[in-house]
Please model this.
Amino acid sequence: MFQFDTLSLVFTALIVLGAVPNLFYSHGYLPHIERKAHYRLHYLTFVFSMIGVVVSANALMFLLFWELMSLTSWQLILTEAKEKKTVDAARFYFLMTHFGFVFLLLFFLIATDGDLEIGFSAMHGIVSKFAYPTLLFFFILLGFLSKAGAVPLHVWLPYAHPEAPSPVSALMSGVMLKVAIYGLFRFLFNVLYPWPLEWGVVILVIGSLSSLIGVLYALSEHDIKALLANHSIENIGIILIGFGMGMIFGSMGLKVLSSFAFIAALFHTFNHMSFKSLLFMGAGAVLHQTHTKNIEKYGGLIKAMPVTALTFLLASVSISALPPTNGFLSEWMIFQSMLSSSHLDNTSLKLAIPFAIFALAMTGGLAIACFVKAYGITFLGLHRSSNAKHAHEVNGWMRAGMILMAAVVLSLMLFTPFYIGWFDKVLIGLGHLSVYAEIFPDGIWHMHSVGMHGGVVSPLILLGALLGVTALLMFGYKALHVKERIHRTWSCGYRTSARTQYSATGFAGPIRRFFGWLYKPDEHFVKESIEGYSSKFSDSHYEVHVKPLFETTLYESVAKAVNRISYWVYRLSHFEQTRYAAMIFNLMLSVLFSYRIFAHEFSWATLLLEGMVMLISIKILIIGEKQ
Amino acid sequence: MTAYLLTIFLLLLIAPLLLSFIKALKMQLLYKKPVSLFQGYRNFSKLMQKETIVSEEASVMTRVAPFLVLSPLLVTLFFLPPVVQGAFYVSFVDAFTITGLIALSTFFLMLLGLDSASAFGGMGSSREAFIAALVEPAMVLTVFSVSMMAGDLGVGQAGVNLAAHFPQEHTASFLFAAISFFILLIAENGRIPVDNPETHLELTMVHEAMILDITGVYLAIIETAASVKFVIFASLFASLFLPFGLQYDVPIAVALFLAKLFLIAAAVALIEVNTAKLRLFKVPNLLGIAIVFAFLSLITFYVLGA
Model:
């Protein structure tokens, strides 16, 4: 019923590392929640159900805990269901997560042959006899990626995460998304093992797209929690890039590189858990003090909230993949595994992978821009609203949560070899090669890439050098005894005020304009000119909203199509019962035919024949003659 | 080891000289009376003696960020390829780390711009973020291509390898990568046509806008950081794309290396004199060229056989 192999244990560790600081934070947050019992019950069930998912050993337990996890998180989003927006977001989340669940159920029904209580390893035998493994692969992909939030199933994240209470957003974004990554590891390794090359390429493409699209939409967000939610899409994309590279190397027989890429993906999973939780906690603290999620209303909070500001800075540097933080190390590993693509024996892949490198590098650059914006507008400058002016540091429990999470980030940075040892054991457990000795051939100081003449990075030396040089410079500055004067900011003879500083909208302006073809921003610009002048105005208001492209095209047009079809069916069923009956007949015919195609050997001839039969029957029975 | 430490010291020492050299050469070409080559040092010593004015709107970030802008760049100096054959060098650090360290410095510079609550600072940070985001992919791809030609990802080792046996069969890829890297050198250091380091006009300035509120010793630190950044890029270009002359004796090799640095500085000055600054929204076109050349370099490398 339960199993405790290395993969399960490592993911249990991930959940525990993410949940323990969150418990402290959550305790500090509790006074602001009205339905305390409801919150406590669902919160604890949520944490336990996540652990349940990663330790369950058969399909039934897995699905049970998976569903429990989805339902409790859905209820947690509804903790403070005062606005319609929250209810809508929760409904959207509910729909998306069950959309994924359907595919998981389909996968399990096929892979277990109906007996949901057999173990995962027994499923491997059944799957290897199944005629269409790629179908199962896509079921898994749809099932898990709708939870993980990869393009194009990511649209619920920017709605659901901001509406949940902050500790829950931290838990959902930091930990729950990783449970889906666990699912990918578990079922791709244990059940669907020999992968064709194309699967890896599919995951790599999804990863590259997710990372770019996530960061681009994050840049255009004004809601700090939606910004962070979009960054989760980006980071899931980065994890998937590592995962996809691992699969590509695995199916090309490059075992060592494959293990390296998987370790990179696992490492980034841990890193994203740590810094994303910390960022959501920081955002929650800010939100808690200023009572708004709008980033334009913050500013200058570093003076009032030093602990939050410092931990948020650590997490920002880490998520921007800047050395010597843990975020840099895992992204470095993913880059190194992509650079090792020159070992591949396939020219078209070799030419294609640089495009993924381009996507990842661009993501890195844009993430830096995004976090300069998030940090600078929130914590630096002058307060932009009176709420921000009266903010002060949050209570001790919440601070303790943030500091503990910062300690987790720091531990991932300082004890990288230790964690990589864990991940290495995971891959040994999954039947891959051990590469720990190749990554750390000479002690813990240098981290090597396993490709031929790969790069080397030495995180501790780098950290020591940076700290040493900075300390030396600061010491030198102190020794100079420089006279210091406090004076107001120079702004062309005027006083600078909260309204003359750069806003978040303005900061992202150039990037928004450059990517205008993607954003298609919805701009509102109202100004009242002073009479007699066209360029001087007394009052002006500028607002810009970006609605995600995927939502407007993919989702809304699907919704429109479904509406139209259901209207047509409604009309048929109510006014033309004969044709309605004919349609039911056709539906049954198509089910029978597709079962035949699906369960027996596929052949183009029968497909063609049955397709013709279907078309004729539809034409005669449903469409009928033109009137 | 002494040669290693001396080179680092020398690079640090000539950093302001190179920037003054560019300025003097530009003025000479524009029929102006050129500034002294030692103007950089004069500015530095003048700023060191001044009092520091800290904005009252600013937070602790203003007091910390200047050091964090300079220190990653100083650390990077230790990782550059060797100037002389057989000299000690840090062989293990790869180009990603160097790119990352430079980005770390830029990150804190951008935060510094946002700290003083002035519109100029935000403007500069915003523009810098835009340019830096587009530089990143071109940088990574160029580095990838060069390291493939050199057969090593470590920057120091790549420089040595390229000098030891130049990849004759990949001259085309090599040239493409060089063009791309030179564009990046211009963009990262804020030279014309991407940014004009001499202007204080709000329509055009990028780097200067971020540091408009910084004075005294802090300004000296930031200016040093800017010159060190130029030296890093110039010496990377000299070691990776002009890889010759390492085998000579120490004085000749060092002199040759310095000559290469001045040659690069002169090239930058010539470009500055002969082009106009691009509009901010035209800058992506230039960086797009860099990205395309980086891709071309990789593709020719693969297609012509690795």
User: Anything to note?
Assistant: The first helix of chain B runs from residue 2 to 29.
